[in-house]
TrEMBL record:
This is ABC transporter permease. Keywords: Cell membrane, Membrane, Transmembrane, Transmembrane helix. It comes from Ralstonia soli. It is a multi-pass membrane protein. Signal peptide: none annotated.
């Protein structure tokens, strides 16, 4: 495998600059998170408590691992709208193979994750081979995956009991294994992005794919790989969700793709590709989760919660556009 030194000087410089910006907004994200904690702590006397924090920690693993995968996809300038439906499909496969076919937890879980990975690979392969925008391809996969989930479960929730609840059961300080696994995935994702040739190629592809191609590197397998990874992580998220609910709902994950994309964009990853950080995505997930939990505790109505969350997303996109324009006019 080639090193990033084989890239043209301009592309290599852009790659290093994009990776170097990974700490650029951490202070701002941390300040925003602290401000939200103070605000909701003032409005709700029970918000700043261990039960609140453990509840948030144990509810974010599925969102977090999917956000890690979406970070990689946005880094190459793509997008995947099918992640919520793929999660529901993986959960449905897990539940049906266990309840109807008598499979054990491990083979059923592997089957669900494998099918989710296949769905991601399909999205990537069609996008790359035919040059179709991933937005459109993933929209089609979204419908297919949701339809398969309904078909497998007869459009009903399938209960599997406590077979996989160990992932959601707290082991220390109220923290469940699912949270620890999600943090491990985040750490590995950040290392891959900033410390490996694979990660540098993703940044370079998102920055200037033609320059990467002219350098003798074929970007196609890398682009397919990140969509396959997104599918795999959606399958893992399905395990986390099923372990928490002890059931698989074919309606699970509806609208979750918007939460995932919002968390990644709030974390500073550019929708245009070439700039982002898995570590900052963690902050984006925390901001989304703290916002939802805080609004729920102060008794905000569902319309109000959606308006405020939407406003935060719009603000994040505006900031991303501003950062992109500033980076283009900044002298090198």
């Amino acid at each position: 495998m080639r090193s990033d030194s084989t890239l043209p000087p301009a592309a290599a410089q852009s790659t290093r600059a994009a990776l170097g910006m990974s700490l650029g907004t951490v202070g701002g994200l941390l300040a925003a998170l602290v401000a939200m904690l103070v605000l909701f702590g003032t409005l709700s006397p029970t918000f700043l408590s261990l039960p609140t924090f453990t509840t948030i920690a144990n509810e974010i693993p599925d969102l977090l691992v999917m956000a890690v995968g979406m970070t990689f996809i946005l880094m190459i300038g793509g997008i995947d709208l099918s992640v919520g439906s793929v999660l529901a499909l993986a959960a449905s496969v897990l539940s049906v193979t266990m309840t109807q076919f008598g499979w054990g937890v491990l083979p059923a879980a592997l089957a669900g994750v494998a099918l989710a990975t296949a769905a991601g690979t399909l999205t990537g392969a069609v996008t790359v081979h035919w040059g179709i925008p991933s937005f459109i391809v993933s929209l089609g996969v979204l419908e297919m995956a949701r339809g398969l989930a309904y078909s497998l479960t007869d459009s009903r929730t399938v209960y599997i009991g406590s077979a996989v609840d160990w992932l959601a059961n707290p082991i220390a300080l109220g923290i469940a294994p699912a949270f620890l696994i999600a943090i491990a995935v985040t750490v590995v994702g950040q290392i891959v992005l900033v410390r490996t040739v694979f990660g540098r190629y993703l940044v370079a592809i998102g920055t200037n794919e033609e320059a990467v191609r002219l350098a003798g590197v074929n970007p196609r397998p890398y682009k397919i790989a990140v969509f396959a990874l997104m599918g795999l992580l959606s399958g893992l998220a399905a395990l986390f969700q099923v372990s928490r609910l002890e059931a698989a709902d074919p309606n699970a994950g509806e609208g979750m793709e918007l939460q995932v994309i919002a968390a990644v964009v709030i974390g500073g990853t550019s929708l245009m590709g070439g700039r982002g950080s898995v570590a900052r995505t963690l902050f984006g997930v925390l901001i989304i989760s703290v916002l939802e939990s805080g609004l729920a505790q102060i008794g905000a109505s569902e319309p109000t919660k959606r308006i405020i969350t939407g406003a935060v997303i719009v603000a994040a996109v505006v900031m991303d556009t501003y950062r992109t324009r500033r980076s283009r006019i900044k002298p090198h």
